[in-house]
UniProtKB/TrEMBL annotation:
It comes from Clavelina lepadiformis. Residues 73-268 form the SRR1-like domain. PANTHER family: SRR1-LIKE PROTEIN. Belongs to the SRR1 family. Pfam families: SRR1. This is SRR1-like domain-containing protein.
Amino acid sequence: MNDTDGTWKTVPWNQRKFHRKAKKQCNHVAVNQECYISAKPVQFHLNQISCKVKELCGSTFCAEFLAALHNAFGNERHVKEIVCYALGTPTESKSSAYQLAMLAIIRQFLADIDKLSTMCEIKEFMEYFSKSFLRKKDVVLENVKCSLFDPVFTMQDRKLINDLSMDVLKENEEGRREATDETLFYMIHSDKWITNNLLWKNWSTENLNNLLVVGNSFMSIYERTPSSYLKADYKYLYLVNELDLYSEIQLPVYKYKEDTFNDTSVLWFPAKKLILAEAELRKSYQENCPTYSE
């Protein structure tokens, strides 16, 4: 990925863990015992997201992130929906705000992925998007629906998300979302039980093949966690590794906010691997949703 590599042919592009930290008492107005909203207007938070979009779009981190998505999905994938879990509260957490800014970039990138085949084109896309973000409503966004849920969302978070032309899910799915079409699940730092629920809900060759994930590195989970523990408490997360069902590209760390995208990967489930394990998939499926002791 050398910027000065003369072999690139430039074609102009045109056309958590949950963040459950205690809320600070300053700059807040109490609405009731359970709901607080930031005293700052939504436009302030939109401006903050816009600044983070520009910052990310000017980084090699973002270029490598988008290149990993392209390598994983390429022109063979046509994502129609992004579902985001465990974002945290972007009006209160800088890490959450950075993750929301990156989500906005990814959404437009996936809408235009067919036009972007080289690193130079990806960088031109980043430059264009950083300048046009929030200045116009690109109709391309309608091609990629984006829905989010986190139980910690405040009223201001919901307003911010809606103003970014994204939706807040009405119910807490706890990861139990069926991927009937190709769907990207953006779940950075989410808990293992959410990932396990997602895998359980999509435990078939067709649905797993529709499943694309930007989240915690599976390789890191397997390196850090005893397999006996995973097998007992997170059966489907265990089986994904045991049956060799997934492929992974580990993403770089954003050096200016190292705790925001650390230990994050792009993960997908290739059809060839799923077909080989089809009998095991059917045999290992259990109808009842997993339960957890924690």
